[in-house]
């Protein structure tokens, strides 16, 4: 068993020294310097006793660096002679070595003090030969210590390591052990690997000589004899503090963190079988009650309720429309002339129309919070980088192994040699794009590791890819050799080291910074949030080229040109090994333009299909011989021209008002207005054809009578649709709002033109028909064969003789009621389960390269976007009291901004924050505390880089507070600009230019003192690829910001922080989408109820029937959205609002016809279904269906999902309710003693 002697030089640590008898005066192993080896002094071998340290400067260093040893050796009275095994030069070397450690570990004073115990014991402690064994080599006329064995207890080493293991590196948000553990990262490091890395002179340029650490729990061997003596200390935990010192802060030591409640996230609602519990229970109860009521009504003896449908002033609307129709039919030329003037005047405004393709302008309102925050960020810090990215997958999916010194390693298919070589060759080709034309990558890239005024070369550009681990050197990648242990050392060994510890200098890219594995590779097996995946198992690579961005679009010409070269090059790139997906910053905007241009053909085909159907269906063609006389082709053309004219007028009207629109709206609105407007054409023409024209003296009176009958219904449906689109215009999303505004104006203008211009066209066409002239060949006459009797079409006959009797039979009515009850209740159950969001790829054309990019993003993206916590002006950063509410180091408040962000990052599965936030103020304070980092030119007083060796560059004169932790206000303000100008290196790793040059906005006064205004703290998020993930991240970010702002208010500080992420602006709508949906739909339902109530002359019964049917249509639309995986977003919400308006069309005409009919409820239902239902089917359902089906072949997924699917659902569900459920419900009403008009133009039974 090993003999362990505990030794320490600090009574204050409650440790003790047990000297072996006869060993109290053991010799030193070295004393003084020998010679330089590289940049390090070697120690001269010695076997003499400890000597006095006769140097006040060195004694002050030893007192500061080794306080516990100093107090012990100076004795209780402090007057003993200081005897050490190091001279003054070695004390200075000790301080220099500790200064390097300060740059990494100084955030945690206890860690630094614990490290100092073992370093001071080794370097200067009396009798250190007890636990050190020196191995000497000759040099000149003496010997020097070539390497040593350091016998250290495992408990001591473990406690020192544990006190340092949690320290964070503010610039990267990663643990410092990613920097300080050699070839291991914080996840795989332990105390042995840490100490071994600090003693490995062969692998590290910062270790002066080899230190072989031996631990007391090692197996007994040649290096661990039974009588070996081990150094045993009692270091403090990170949450404890030494005398006159501080414990580590919360960010660097979990023990120091206050007890806090973990964030709960958004609470999931109560669910049953995966569905929203409340609606599930309500639907179930309502469904059961209605089913019981239906069965009771069907098989019992119950009296139908007496229902009254009174009309207070319905005759006024009838008379007004009849008068107006007669006037327009009597003076068609005048009416058409006036309409043409109006159309021309309004249409001229198109020249002033603005069309945008900017995604931000499309999806974020000017008053939206995220839009305001984005504009604030862009204005103060500049817009987010321009990201040009390539995802690469190998076509060969094979995994393979590699025998390495660390063991047998398994690699994913992304690391196959030939695949990597081709990827790197592809990267080299991209890096050369545009160089010959003067618009190369160096002209547009982001290059943070340059001093102001330096022009970047391509090697200085930030390129995140695996090739950076080889410094873009193909020969280094291809290098391979066998080591002394017969291991093949090649590119895989470099990848193993760099993927595990990307912060090693040997792994830095040519731009001077690290390559993040989470950005460079992807497709690893999934791990829990906050855990690093096994990067060696990657199945794909990511190449990211960051470009500078500008607020002024005119300054982006070079960027746009290079990005176009990037896109064109990759579009034409082919490979047998690589499967690539890519996107440039301009790609989405280009895709929006491509989408708009690509759908013109779809819309044109839709118009042609609908035109053909209307032209055939409008006429009453009895034979081929009379086709051109009885057809209504010119009238159909006129009706479609009127629809297009209404769209043109809408575009021109809003163009005059400078309301920006989108190409998508310009293409969808004509289709929408055509689908909505053509049904009015059918209803007017069919109503006129049903009249017995022999009862009218002339054509214009007959047309006036027809318009008098259908005018109120047309007004009701048009007013409802207009109201619903107007409500859609309250959306915060610009694309949706302008779409609704343009559509509302088009609907209104279409209605006005239909009751004017189309009535005039009807009169002209009827005169043509009655004069025996042919359609389209009006100069050709035929013999007059007039038929003034009412004309009944084939469809109406089918309704009268087959469909209506079948539907209104008792058995079928029961089945219909039960079926609709079940479907509606099921729809109500699933409606709350509709997922909010809009998949990114749906907004792109199917054949766009961006679609594949979004798909690959889901597989290969392993790192989320950065979140910037923007702190507005209001703090005096030079005052320690105000530093304490934002910083994360020693003396900082437990609820400071940095501490709160760190605390939240410990719960990444909820907050979506992957790391602690970068903190420029902590790094600035640490940078100032290192004497050789801040330098100034003694002649000009200007900034000097920290690595400058010029004689004119001197250390900055600095003043600190009494405790030495914080700079005094003048020192703080004077050197901010120096910190933000200094590039980091091994000596001054916390210099701020690379990480913080854009993060701090300040002004300088005449004396060169800075006043900091705006600043941000950057924090990486976890990977988000779906709308719910982005929405949750935004929600949590706002919650965190509100808690931080509450903390500021509690401290009486008038300052505000807000989160900004480049993606947040597109997902803000989903935070309130359900509230917006319920509000908009509720408002729409109120609008159509009010419109119906007013137009029907305060017929409350008719208004309630229409309202009930429309509610059923909307509920079933929700069920269809859930079943067809249509998400809830601003587009689908507007479609639901439109569904309310269009639903009125399927219902209102039949309700009005039912009201005006005679007989029992069954008779009235039969007649309204026969006469009006057939027109609804042919004029509303089939016309819309004809145009909608074409959208199924659209290249746009937005068209397919949100226009084809939803409008198909609106048509089919609306038709089912209007032509199946409504007649059944109406037939069940009571006597209906309503007020009925008795005019000569009363609709006649065919």
TrEMBL record:
Its main location: membrane. InterPro entries: HMGCR/SNAP/NPC1-like_SSD, NPC1_MLD, NPC1_N, SSD. It catalyses: cholesterol(in) = cholesterol(out). It is found in: Endomembrane system. Residues 1-22 form the signal peptide. It comes from the Eukaryota. One of its GO terms (molecular function) is cholesterol binding. The chain crosses the membrane at residues 273-296, 332-350, 600-621, 633-657, 663-685, 739-764, 1073-1096, 1103-1124, 1130-1148, 1169-1194, 1206-1229. One of its GO terms (biological process) is cholesterol metabolic process. The keyword Transmembrane helix applies. Keywords: Cholesterol metabolism, Disulfide bond, Glycoprotein, Lipid metabolism, Membrane, Signal, Steroid metabolism, Sterol metabolism, Transmembrane, Transmembrane helix, Transport. The keyword Transferase does not apply. Residues 599-764 form the SSD domain. GO terms for cellular component: endomembrane system; plasma membrane. It is a multi-pass membrane protein. Belongs to the patched family. This is NPC intracellular cholesterol transporter 1 homolog 1b. It comes from Drosophila lebanonensis (Fruit fly). The lineage of its organism: Eukaryota, Metazoa, Ecdysozoa, Arthropoda, Hexapoda. The gene is LOC115627507.
């Amino acid at each position: 068993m090993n003999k362990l002697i505990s030794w320490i030089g600090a009574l204050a640590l409650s440790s003790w020294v047990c000297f072996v008898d006869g060993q109290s005066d053991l010799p030193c192993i070295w004393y003084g310097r020998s010679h330089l080896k590289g940049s390090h002094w070697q120690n001269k071998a010695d076997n003499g006793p400890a000597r006095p340290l006769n140097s006040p400067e060195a004694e002050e260093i030893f007192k500061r660096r080794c306080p516990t040893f100093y107090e012990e050796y100076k004795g209780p009275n402090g007057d003993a002679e200081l005897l050490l095994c190091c001279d003054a030069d070695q004390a200075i070397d000790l301080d220099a070595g500790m200064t390097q450690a300060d740059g990494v570990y100084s955030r945690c004073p206890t860690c630094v003090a614990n490290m100092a115990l073992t370093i001071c014991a080794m370097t200067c402690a009396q009798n250190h030969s007890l636990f050190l064994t020196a191995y000497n080599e000759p040099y000149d006329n003496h010997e020097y210590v070539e390497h040593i064995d350091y016998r250290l207890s495992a408990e001591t080493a473990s406690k020192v390591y544990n006190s340092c293991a949690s320290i964070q590196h503010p610039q990267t948000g990663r643990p410092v052990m990613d920097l300080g553990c050699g070839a291991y990262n914080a996840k795989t490091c332990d105390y042995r690997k840490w100490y071994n890395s600090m003693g490995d002179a062969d692998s590290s340029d910062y270790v002066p000589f080899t230190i072989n650490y031996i631990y007391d729990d090692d197996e007994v061997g040649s290096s661990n004899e039974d009588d070996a003596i081990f150094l045993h200390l009692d270091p403090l935990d990170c949450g404890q503090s030494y005398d006159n010192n501080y414990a580590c802060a919360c960010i660097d030591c979990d023990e120091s963190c206050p007890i806090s409640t973990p964030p709960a996230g958004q609470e999931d609602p109560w669910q049953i079988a995966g569905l929203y519990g409340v609606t599930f229970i309500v639907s179930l109860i309502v469904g059961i009650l209605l089913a019981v009521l239906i069965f009771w009504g069907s098989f019992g003896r119950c009296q139908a309720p007496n229902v009254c449908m009174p009309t207070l002033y319905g005759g006024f609307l009838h008379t007004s429309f009849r008068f107006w129709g007669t006037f327009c039919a009597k003076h068609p030329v005048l009416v058409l002339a006036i309409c043409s003037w109006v159309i021309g005047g309004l249409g001229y405004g198109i020249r002033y129309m603005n069309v945008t393709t900017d995604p931000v302008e499309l999806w974020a309102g000017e008053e939206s919070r995220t839009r305001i925050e984005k504009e604030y960020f862009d204005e103060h810090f500049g817009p987010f980088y321009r990201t040009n990215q390539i995802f690469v997958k190998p076509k060969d999916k094979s995994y393979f192994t590699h025998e390495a010194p660390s063991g047998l390693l398994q690699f994913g298919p992304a690391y196959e040699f030939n695949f990597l070589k081709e990827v790197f060759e592809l990267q080299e080709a991209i890096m050369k794009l545009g160089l010959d034309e003067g618009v190369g990558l160096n002209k547009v890239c982001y290059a943070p590791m340059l001093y102001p005024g330096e022009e970047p070369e391509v090697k200085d550009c930030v390129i995140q890819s695996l090739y950076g681990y080889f410094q873009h050197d193909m020969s280094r990648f291809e290098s391979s050799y066998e080591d002394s242990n017969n291991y093949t050392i090649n590119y895989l060994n470099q990848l193993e080291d760099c993927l595990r510890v990307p912060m090693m200098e040997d792994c830095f890219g040519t731009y001077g910074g690290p390559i993040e594995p989470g950005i460079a590779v992807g497709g690893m097996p999934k791990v829990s949030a906050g855990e690093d995946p096994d990067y060696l198992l990657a199945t794909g690579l990511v190449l990211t080229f960051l470009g500078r961005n500008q607020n002024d679009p005119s300054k982006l010409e070079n960027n746009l040109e290079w990005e176009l070269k990037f896109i064109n090059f990759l579009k034409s790139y082919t490979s047998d090994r690589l499967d690539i997906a890519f996107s440039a910053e301009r790609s989405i905007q280009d895709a929006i333009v491509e989408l708009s241009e690509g759908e013109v053909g779809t819309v044109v085909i839709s118009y042609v299909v609908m035109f053909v159907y209307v032209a055939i269906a409008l006429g009453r063609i009895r034979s081929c011989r009379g086709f051109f006389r009885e057809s209504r082709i010119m009238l159909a053309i006129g009706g479609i021209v009127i629809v297009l004219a209404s769209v043109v007028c809408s575009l021109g009207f809003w163009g005059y008002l400078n309301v920006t629109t989108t190409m998508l709206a310009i293409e969808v609105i004509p289709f929408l207005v055509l689908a909505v407007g053509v049904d009015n054409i059918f209803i007017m023409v069919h109503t006129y054809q049903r009249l017995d024209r022999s009862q009218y003296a002339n054509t214009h009176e007959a047309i006036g009578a027809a318009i008098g009958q259908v005018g109120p219904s047309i007004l009701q449906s048009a007013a409802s649709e207009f109201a619903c689109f107007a409500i859609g215009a309250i959306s915060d999303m610009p694309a949706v709002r302008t779409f609704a505004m343009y559509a509302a104006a088009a609907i209104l203008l279409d209605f006005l033109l239909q009751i004017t211009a189309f009535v005039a066209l009807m009169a002209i066409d009827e005169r043509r028909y009655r004069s025996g002239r042919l359609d389209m060949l009006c100069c050709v006459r035929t013999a007059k064969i007039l038929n003034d009797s009412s004309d009944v079409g084939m469809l109406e006959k089918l309704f009268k003789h087959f469909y209506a009797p079948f539907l209104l039979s008792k058995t079928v009515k029961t089945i219909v009621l039960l079926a609709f009850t079940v479907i509606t209740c099921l729809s109500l159950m699933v409606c709350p389960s509709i997922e909010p969001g809009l998949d990114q790829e749906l907004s792109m054309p199917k054949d766009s390269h961006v679609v594949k990019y979004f798909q690959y993003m889901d597989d290969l993206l392993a790192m989320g976007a950065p979140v910037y916590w923007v702190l507005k002006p209001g703090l005096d950063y030079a005052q320690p009291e105000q530093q304490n509410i934002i910083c994360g180091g020693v003396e900082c408040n437990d609820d400071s901004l940095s501490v709160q962000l760190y605390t939240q990052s410990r719960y990444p599965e909820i907050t979506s924050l992957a790391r602690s936030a970068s903190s420029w103020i902590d790094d600035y304070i640490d940078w100032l505390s290192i004497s050789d980092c801040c330098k100034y030119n003694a002649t000009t007083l200007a900034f000097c880089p920290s690595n400058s060796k010029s004689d004119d560059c001197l250390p900055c004169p600095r003043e600190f507070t009494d405790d030495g932790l914080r700079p005094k206000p003048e020192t703080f303000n004077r050197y901010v600009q120096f910190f933000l100008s200094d590039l980091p290196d091994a000596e001054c790793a916390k210099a701020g230019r690379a990480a913080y040059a854009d993060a701090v906005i300040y002004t300088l006064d005449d004396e060169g003192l800075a006043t900091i205004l705006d600043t941000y703290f950057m924090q990486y998020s976890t990977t988000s690829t779906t709308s719910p993930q982005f929405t949750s991240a935004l929600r949590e970010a706002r919650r965190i910001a509100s808690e931080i702002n509450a903390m500021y208010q509690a401290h009486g500080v008038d300052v505000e922080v807000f989160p900004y992420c480049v993606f947040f602006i597109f997902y803000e709508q989903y935070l309130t989408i359900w509230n917006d949906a319920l509000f908009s739909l509720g408002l729409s339902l109120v609008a159509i109820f009010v419109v119906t109530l007013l137009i029907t002359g305060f017929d409350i019964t008719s208004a309630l029937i229409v309202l009930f049917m429309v509610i059923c249509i909307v509920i079933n639309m929700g069920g269809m959205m859930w079943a067809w995986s249509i998400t809830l977003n601003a587009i689908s919400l507007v479609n639901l609002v439109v569904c309310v308006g269009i639903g009125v069309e399927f219902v209102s005409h039949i309700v009005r016809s039912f009201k005006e009919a005679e007989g029992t409820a069954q008779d009235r239902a039969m007649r309204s279904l026969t006469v009006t239902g057939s027109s609804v089917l042919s004029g509303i359902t089939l016309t819309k269906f004809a145009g909608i089906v074409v959208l199924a072949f659209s290249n746009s997924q937005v068209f397919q999902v949100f226009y084809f699917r939803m409008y198909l659902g609106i048509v089919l569900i609306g038709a089912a309710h209007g032509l199946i459920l409504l007649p059944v419900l109406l037939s069940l009403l009571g006597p209906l003693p309503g007020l009925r008009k008795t005019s000569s133009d009363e609709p006649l039974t065919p």
